[in-house]
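Researcher: Next entry: SnoaL-like domain-containing protein (Cryptosporangium japonicum).
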Amino acid sequence: MTDLDVAREMFDAWDRLDWDRAIDLFADDGVLHSVMQEPLVGKEAIAGRLRELAAGATWITLDIKTLGTIDGKVFVERVDRFGFNGHEGEVPVVGVLRIADGKVTEWLEYYDRATLLRGMGR
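Model: Predicted structure:
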């Protein structure tokens, strides 16, 4: 499986709200870092955050605009559309993923947090 295949599988897991699969696609010591917050390090910390999201998310669509690799990293430009606790929103995102041995070792996310929180009704 190529790095792009792993990234596509991760995005598909989010679209299907398949949090177990999304968590499984991270390396045990993987990092999920929304750059305006502290990074989550390790599968257990990432699982905790995704379970919080799962509690309120009714649907998610990651609308991929651009996807490719540069210097061994996967870059994705997308618009995330979602339903969360009775609210609907969308937020443009750029993500950078490092993948090794079929697992995400680092996922950096760049987006406007205020836009995300507004869409979530917060």
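Model: Note for the record: The chain has one domain: 3-119.
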